[in-house]
Amino acid sequence: MTGNRRTGRAAVTLGLTVITVVTVVTLLVLTGVPGTATDDGRDRAPGHLPLGPADLAEHRTVTPLAPGVEHLAIRRGDASPDEHWTLTVGLGTSEAEVAELRRRVREAGHTPVLSEVVGADPGRRDGTGPGTLVRVGAYAGEGEADEVREELAEAGVRTKQQHTSGDGRVATGPWSVHVLVIDPEEFDGRLTAELAAGTVAGRETVTSLVSRTGALAGVNGGFFVLGERDRPGQGIAGTEGDLAGVSVIRGELLSEAVNGRPALVLPDGSGAEATIRRLRTRLSVRVAGASREVTGLNRVPGLIVNCGGVGEQTPLMRPAHDWTCGNAHELIAITPEFGAQAPGGEGYQVVLDGDGRVTGARENGGGPVPADGLVLRATGDSATWLRRHVAVGSTVSVTEDVVDVGTGKVLPRSAGTSVVNGGPLLLRDGAVALDPERDGWSPRDIAATDRAEWFTEWYLRRKARSAAGVTADGRLLLMTADGDQPDHGVGLTIGETAEVMRSLGAVDAVNLDGGGSAAMAVDGTLVSSPSDAAGERPVADALLVLP
What we know:
- The protein is an alpha+beta fold and 547 residues long.
- It contains eight helices and 33 strands.
- The strands form six sheets. Strands 1-2-3-8-29-28-30-26-27 form a nine-stranded antiparallel β-sheet, covered by helices on one side.
- The chain is globular.
- Mean pLDDT is 91; it is low at 1-45.
């Protein structure tokens, strides 16, 4: 793509007040009315979004960004006067739990309101939801709800402010959805994943990433560590910005997989042959005839975010989203992409140069990461092995393979390869393919911690979402949906996210990081609306469309 094309499209931006050429098309879409079609007859915006009643008004705006790249903005429906703010006290998964929550509300001087959770609990054969929400009140505004929340807090009853438009029932919206459509047959730029701030241990907004790299557009990428905690358990722990799943950028593996979870694979940067695959990673070191499994890349030992790792991981081996598993016997490789300094802490550490020769060894972690080498950091039994087999002057080889779970074959990587972690899998071969148990969104308890309420909030309620999909003819779709904004965008449940991607033409699709991370920027301008009160959230990586 030439510089002239970038200059030529500068007059066709979303901030334009006067459009003098036919490059932006605005559509009013009602039931059965198709979207725009290109000269080759392919429908760019078929039908309408499968959200709410079929007769809701839907507006679509298509903005060409470059040959083979379009930005589609969709507005559907309006806020309903029947929706309101409420205070959720908790989720009861049994009659006894519901009765206890109701008792607490009554003792605080209020009347409990019961609301059945919409959506199925994958562990219940009858297809019912996880339980019943016990709530207080119906309020027109957040301020009124907040006053009652403070009153209940003084009585010892903790609550969460929620808007009923997010409950997952049939709603009227509004929905605000943005889609980047990349056609590799026409696109002659480059599509790549990019690290925020250029390092694993860093975060940056999508808008900043797009501006810094001169990208046409960008969308947030995979899951990552937000904030720093130093122990396993419910939530995410580790170095801020650490990618919580597989990551390949410019062909380099930067983070191990949450084994078996889906990811977006871009083989060569052109966007051609993009796929959604279930992946695992296979890592090892070898020295003088001895070898050992490497359990992680570019993270703190003992903190496996989203679980699903290898080795002696506890308390479980399967994926578990928003849970940090532990392992007292890790061998971690720290590459230059992590940052200038290796993470500190207990254990044993050796430093390798670019030829794999050990140039230094020390007890405990920390210190500089060589620009052309790496650091091996070990704990527990792995530290014992490293001390025994590796010394200054030894030559160590490190093997890093990304393996397709479906075929068992190693994924080929070139300098243009990108892989972005995600989950759950949304679509496979045109059909909804949701499997929350397999992908780590099980509502089952972990280590005596109730996950049913977390599952309801994360999976079944409407939230801001991002997703990636591939159409039958090879186009790539990158989608964001605004959420948690009742007058602008109510968001999507995970089930709705799958259906939206299918309605846009995807046959395979994966959910990306969402919530406050969901963001899309076009030509350096944020076009999505952040759900975080503080504004656009800095993220760990992004998918960029470069000229």
